[in-house]
Amino acid sequence: MEDQLRKVLSEIEARAVSSQRELTSVKQALVQKQRIAKTIQLTLAEIDSLPKDTPLYQGVGKMFMLADETTLQSRLKEEKKSTEDEAKALEKKHEYLLKTYENARQHIQAAMQRQAT
């Protein structure tokens, strides 16, 4: 009986550690996506503040190409929407992993209390 309890506890602990590791990774990815979205928003605001006849350039690999303002803005808006969607998905994954981690921790505590009794 005690061997089974140890086995279950080790499995739950492994799940908790895995969830915590993934949680850290997801947090970092979420911060990165939020930073990218903010950068795009600032770029769009800067483009809007420029005079209409200002030439705009778009980075392509190691070079820059002249870009049409509407094309550049639409590409940036699409990229921003995509980044925000990815951030929302990461937030959902973060919530799921947090619940998984909390559940595993509660199971460990409950098993320890049962073993102490």
Automatic annotation (TrEMBL):
<feature type="coiled-coil region">
    <location>
        <begin position="66"/>
        <end position="100"/>
    </location>
</feature>
<protein>
    <submittedName>
        <fullName>Prefoldin</fullName>
    </submittedName>
</protein>
<keyword id="KW-0143">Chaperone</keyword>
<dbReference type="Pfam" id="PF01920">
    <property type="entry name" value="Prefoldin_2"/>
</dbReference>
<keyword id="KW-0175">Coiled coil</keyword>
<dbReference type="GO" id="GO:0016272">
    <property type="term" value="C:prefoldin complex"/>
</dbReference>
<dbReference type="InterPro" id="IPR009053">
    <property type="entry name" value="Prefoldin"/>
</dbReference>
<dbReference type="GO" id="GO:0044183">
    <property type="term" value="F:protein folding chaperone"/>
</dbReference>
<dbReference type="GO" id="GO:0005737">
    <property type="term" value="C:cytoplasm"/>
</dbReference>
<dbReference type="GO" id="GO:0051082">
    <property type="term" value="F:unfolded protein binding"/>
</dbReference>
<comment type="similarity">
    <text>Belongs to the prefoldin subunit beta family.</text>
</comment>
<dbReference type="InterPro" id="IPR002777">
    <property type="entry name" value="PFD_beta-like"/>
</dbReference>
